[in-house]
Structures are given as structure tokens and as C-alpha cells.
Amino acid sequence: MRVKPCILQHLHLDKTYGMLTGKNVRTLMEYFDLIDVHQDGSINDIQFCLVLGAMTDLKRNQIYIVFDMLDIDGSGQIDFDEFYLLICILISLKDKDEKQFIYRHSRTVFELLDEDGSQSISAQEFSAFGFLFNFYGDAVKQIFNDFDISGDQELDYKEFKMFAMACIDRQNEIDRLKREEIERQKRRREAKALKRLAAGGGTWAWLRTSSCTIV
Ligand SMILES: [Ca+2]
Ligand SMILES: [Ca+2]
């Protein structure tokens, strides 16, 4: 998930506690009041969809998944505390502090991902909700397998805590390898293009053809 330039741009989490400072919380409360057009202290899924659509590149169906994840009491409304938690997650992603956030708030993140409240996270829950923290595909599978020490295909809280410390490092490593591969492919394409140029084909041939047409 990518956080777009928006109101969050100038907000940062306190380095010690991984939460917003009091002043920033007030700013966020004022913003929440503006979104809360019915002034009932909560926002519904339509308002939530508009806000999160403007702040992130999440697709509509993903936004609804996040809504259901945050709406823990199933009221169909998101109150300020739930909104505040989401904003802290988004700020941590924007500032690339998500590893610290997950580590500091591992219990909260664990409860968010444990959708059915079974006190453990199944592979299915992880795949369904992990995108909120930029956990994707093969990296999830690999790390999930590594940290499921008991081998029951579930991460209990202890296992999750170890996972929290290590998983984003692994994700970064996979991303780095991907970037290197893209760079290698780009260099290969450039080398081929130069080869064609040296052999009198490619761009020069196209230019010659174009000139003839113009004349
Ligand atoms: Ca569960
Ligand atoms: Ca386990």
C-alpha cells in the first residue's frame, strides 16, 4: 500500500511511543470532525471509503476490508479511536517506520489481524489482511512458515512477536532483489539497443525511413 501526499504528509509518530503527540492528536480530531458530517462521533463506510481512497492507493474492496477490520464491535461505524489507529499505521508506512510500529504495538496489530478472535493468526487471515502492513505473497508464506515454531499453521502471539521483529527486514530484502533484477533487465535492454544501433538497424534505420518519407 502506498500513502499518497495528503494531510498526513506533515504528521509523524513520536519516536519513543510510536503514537501521535498531543498536538497532532488535536489536529486529527479536528479533521475527524470535518469528515463526521452527521456529527455523531463516528464515520460510516461511505465517508471512510472517500477518505482512505484519497489518502492511499488501496482499491475499493481493500478499503472495505480495512473498514471491517477496524470496526471491531461490528457497529458499521468507525469511531475516533479506530480512525486514530489507522492513521498511525498510515503515518508509519509513509515514514517507513512500520517495523517499529508493529513491534511497539504488536498486541494491537495481532488483534487486528486475528479477525475471528481465536488468539492466533491463520495463514488465511494473514493473506487476507496483511496488505495493510505491506505483507504480500511469497514473502508472507516464507516468513509465516519460518515463525510458526509449533507447526500448527497458525501464529500465536509469541510467534507473531518474533515475526514482527523480522518480517519487514525480509520484505525489504526481497524488494531489494526485485529492484536489482529490474535494473539488470533494463541494462540488458539498453545493451541490445546499442548492439542494434552499431549494426546499422534500430533507430538509425527508422530515421532513414522517416527522412525518405518526408522527402
Ligand atoms: Ca484467528
Ligand atoms: Ca504456531
TrEMBL record:
GO biological process: flagellated sperm motility
Keywords for the protein's UniProt record, in alphabetical order: Calcium
One example GO MF annotation: calcium ion binding
Keyword Calcium: yes
Highest taxon of the lineage: Eukaryota
Domain EF-hand as annotated: residue spans: 58-93, 135-170
Gene Ontology cellular component terms for the protein in this record: cytoplasm; sperm principal piece
PANTHER family: EF-HAND CALCIUM-BINDING DOMAIN-CONTAINING PROTEIN 9
Name this polypeptide is given: EF-hand domain-containing protein
Organism: Strongylocentrotus purpuratus (Purple sea urchin)
